[in-house]
Amino acid sequence: MKPAEGPEPQNHTFLTEFVLSGLSSHPEQDNWLFFSFCLIYTFTLTGNLLIFLVTAHPTLHMPMYFFLRVLSFLDISTASTVIPKMLVSFLPEGRRISYMGCATQLYFVIFLGATECYVLAAMAYDRYVAICNPLRYAIIMNNKARLSLVLLSCCSGNVVSVVQTAWVFTLRFCGPNKINYFFCDIPPLVMLSCTDTSLYEKQTLTTAVLVIFAPFCLILVSYACIISNILKISSAEGRRKTFSTCSSHLIVVTLYYGSGSLIYLRPKVNYSQDVKKFFSLIYTAIIPALNPLIYSLRNKEVKGVLIKTIADPRKK
């Protein structure tokens, strides 16, 4: 937090562009990092496109697969917002990003991240209805209901992103213009501001509570009810099968909310910049790449259709 400053001089040179420091401060690592993230990005696109197409198969008509398609789309979009620019930043002149380009990237990072937080909460509610109220599952989670949940998630994410992006770019940036990060994000941009940011930091923390903590609490309540219902099942095999339908979602929730909360819910913790970059990599690059594996390898229906699709792509 910056202390309040006196009257600002009139000869400030305001920034028209920023320079991203990139993922690593060691140039000798650039080649293998570039190659590694090219592979990760390719795998992310291929894996999520496959999941998107496979879950559209007529045999996978349950609401959970609709949410999985939405999640795949969000993962592709998040990776495409961050990784291509990160790859370009490994080139000597590729680290520059315009003022408007930075604002645009920040908008999409926040919008997609917030939307995914809400969609993961909607998926937890879907699992709650499926396990705790199976006879009314098809009625409660009909097409209109699940589409409404996704639209509500997108609208909420858009409102959060517009407000946060507008707040960040009403701050004064007088120099230096080097962002010690591999993409435009709120914490490193706020650090560059030459004005008092104490009020903004409080607003950011409040937003983080609404985007991360509140949906996570809903997920915890959903899974408390789910676990209570599972424990009532008499057979161990029945309990195992029922819980297996939630395990993939729990893994993703733990990784996504865990990494996000360490950055945005604990902004005052003095992590090194490399540690912060690692946490950001988890939700911008690692999770989008892992989701196809998590959901395909741990779901027999998805895995079955995926194998059939790869074996005979002409077969519907």
Would you give an account of this structure?
By secondary structure, the protein is mostly helical. Helix content is 70%, strand content 3%. The chain has helices at residues 30-54, 63-88, 99-132, 137-140, 143-168, 186-192, 198-230, 236-264, 273-297, 300-311, and strands at 17-20, 96-98, 178-179. A three-stranded mixed beta sheet has the order 2-1-3. α3 (99-132) runs antiparallel to α8. The chain starts with 16 loop residues before the first strand and ends in a 5-residue tail after the last helix.
**How many distinct helices?**
10
- Any idea what the radius of gyration is? 22 Å
Order of helices and strands: EHHEHHHEHHHHH
Let me know the largest β-sheet.
3 strands, mixed
| Overall pLDDT | 85
Which stretches are poorly predicted, pLDDT < 50 over at least 5 residues?
A: 1-12
Biggest sheet, spatial arrangement of strands: 2-1-3
N-end to C-end Cα span: 57 Å
Question: What portion of residues belong to β-strands?
Answer: under 5%
Helix content: 55-70%
Question: Could you list some keywords that capture this structure?
Answer:
316 residues, mainly alpha, 70% helix, globular
Task: Break the fold down into its secondary structure elements and pairings.
Layout: E1 17-20, H1 30-54, H2 63-88, E2 96-98, H3 99-132, H4 137-140, H5 143-168, E3 178-179, H6 186-192, H7 198-230, H8 236-264, H9 273-297, H10 300-311
